Amino acid sequence: MKGIDMKLLRAFVTLAIKGSYSNAAKELFLTQPALSKQIQTLEHLTGGELFLRGRHGASLTVFGQQIFSKANELLQSHIEFLNYAKEINTRNREKLFMGFGLSSFQQVPKWINQFHQQFSECEVVINHLPSSAQMKMLLEGRLHIGFVRMPVSKGLASYIFYEETLALAVPMEGYMESMTIQSALSAYPLLQLDPSTSPCLAEQTSLFLQSIQLSAEPVSVTNDMTTLLALVAGGNGVAFLPTSVRHFLPAEARLLMLAEKQIRWNIGVAWNPKIKNHRRDDFLRLVMAGEADIVM
């Protein structure tokens, strides 16, 4: 049997309940000929006569009575499904899914706080994700806003608000004003976040080491920034990190700035302009209005 359109089941159930083609047609906003055609189509698909027509209206045949309960059950399930889908869609419209990376640790939480003050009914769901993963999710519609390394993938819109640089986090116990990158790497192991978690940072570290012609094998010790900083502060090693980590650097750690052959990259906010979302647009306006206050 071919698939049955739900409108045919709706016509069948409505006519069975109303018992009259004229009343059922009014209920369904159809003409009587259009309703008759739908019933005939359903009879053809099911292989049996569904109604007997008489002076007192339309009554179910034995076959029609046998399949009525199942048809009504399917119709009600269809209605429940549509209502459930609408409910979920309404909930999702009041959720803002957002991604961010290392370089936006400082500012994004502040913007979220400001957003909540204005739109308390909208929940912000945020995840720490690599820029490449964020851009893929933005294109797929699984993310509304991403704070990513530029440039963005084709099809996405973006707004640059910050230029990030690289620095070397070193333990306070061994820190001296005269310390250089070379001496720090000679004295301590080079630690790093798992490249699968922070591929951009791993790439920038590799580019810098190549630019100064220094060979060092980073040891991936964690996928968590707080743990990595704690390891550096405890004297376990050094790590190349975005300069913006100075805002939450432990007291037992210091940053060495890379004076020569500095590595720079742009950080911005990205979104998919093909997908309409008014809450996303509210958040973007907040970000762009507050750009002058950004201190990274």
Automatic annotation (TrEMBL):
One Pfam family matching this protein: HTH_1
PANTHER family, alphabetized: LYSR FAMILY TRANSCRIPTIONAL REGULATOR, TRANSCRIPTIONAL DUAL REGULATOR HCAR-RELATED
InterPro entries for this protein: LysR_HTH_N, LysR_subst-bd, WH-like_DNA-bd_sf, WH_DNA-bd_sf
SUPFAM superfamilies the UniProt entry points to: Periplasmic binding protein-like II, Winged helix' DNA-binding domain
The protein, known as: LysR family transcriptional regulator
GO MF entries: DNA binding; DNA-binding transcription factor activity
Entry's Gene Ontology cellular component terms: protein-DNA complex
CDD domains given in the database record: PBP2_LTTR_aromatics_like
Domain annotation HTH lysR-type: ranges: 4-61
PROSITE patterns recorded: HTH_LYSR
Record key words, sorted: DNA-binding, Transcription, Transcription regulation
Domain of life of the native organism: Bacteria
Protein's UniProt keywords contain Transcription: yes
Family: Belongs to the LysR transcriptional regulatory family.
Residues passing through the membrane, by range: none
